[in-house]
Specification:
Homodimer. This protein is of the alpha/beta class. It has helices at 18-30, 50-56, 82-87, 98-103, 108-120, 133-137, 141-153, 180-197, 200-205, 219-223, 242-247, and strands spanning 6-11, 39-44, 61-65, 92-95, 124-129, 162-166, 207-211, 230-233. It starts with 5 loop residues before the first strand and ends with a helix. The chain binds phosphoenolpyruvate.
């Protein structure tokens, strides 16, 4: 994949108890996987478990928050600021997940502001984009993901700390995984868009990962696509098969 390091993120969403979290982390800590030079592994527990997971997790895996506030912290009840994540040594944050775009009405503009602010504070960002089934059936997939990426590109000048997660909404939590050809097509289109609208360098270097019903069985064929640089995994990241997905890197 053109020297882009494979990236596997595990999005635990709003799941888990202390006991369950301990069990998942133990499984990951005992897993036989390639080194950090081959695959970058990041798991994203809910906020309350972040320090606990960070403390317990093997040192070659890292943690991500699932969201953060759009600007500097202050009088924003219920929010968690980028500065707090930095203060806790949390290196990554997932932003713009489709569940937040859909259930909490986060717009592309708002997501882009969050991405820019998180980067400005030194966080690394997994920025999520993706079309709905309706948009795909209307033939607007390329336009939708370009628009979502454009909002981010308008506010971000340095893409070194950005991973772009292409997550078709119709594939998230549905068991309907995109075919390798469908994923490859959108990833290649995104790279073309970045080439034309950002730079050749960013188009070649930014990692574009796929998310949506990835599991141990389908990950290998998806990973073989030239423009698929890894995965963002929901449901399967809570199960031992997450280890198989990490091993799809090789
Ligand atoms: C996700 O939430 O980012 C996701 C891809 O979920 P799932 O793997 O469960 O479809």
């Amino acid at each position: 994949n053109m020297g882009r390091k494979f990236f596997v993120g595990g999005n635990w969403k709003c799941n888990g108890t202390t006991e369950e979290v301990k069990k998942i982390v133990t499984t990951l800590n005992e897993a036989n996987v390639p080194g950090e030079d081959v695959v970058e592994v990041v798991v994203s527990p809910p906020f309350p478990f972040l320090p606990f997971v960070k403390g317990l997790l093997r040192s070659d895996f890292h943690v991500a928050a699932q969201n953060c506030w759009v600007r500097k912290g202050g009088a924003y009840t219920g929010e968690v600021s980028a500065e707090m994540l930095v203060n806790l040594g949390i290196p990554w944050v997932i932003l713009g997940h489709s569940e937040r775009r859909q259930l909490l009405q986060e717009t592309s503009e708002f997501v882009a502001d969050k991405v820019a602010y998180a980067l400005s504070q030194g966080l690394k960002v997994i920025a999520c984009i993706g079309e709905t089934l309706e948009q795909r059936e209307a033939g607007t997939t390329a336009a939708v993901v370009a628009e979502q990426t454009k909002a981010i590109a308008a506010k971000v000048s340095n893409w070194d700390n950005v991973v772009l997660a292409y997550e078709p909404v119709w594939a998230i939590g549905t068991g309907k995984v995109a075919t390798p050809a469908q994923a490859q097509e959108v990833h290649a289109d995104l790279r073309k868009w970045l080439h034309a609208n950002v730079s050749a360098e960013v188009a070649a270097s930014v990692r574009i990962i796929y998310g949506g019903s990835v599991n141990g069985a389908n990950s290998k064929e998806l990973a073989a696509q030239v423009d698929v640089d890894g995965f963002l995994v929901g449901g399967a990241s809570l199960k031992p098969e997450f280890v198989d997905i990490i091993n799809a890197a090789t």
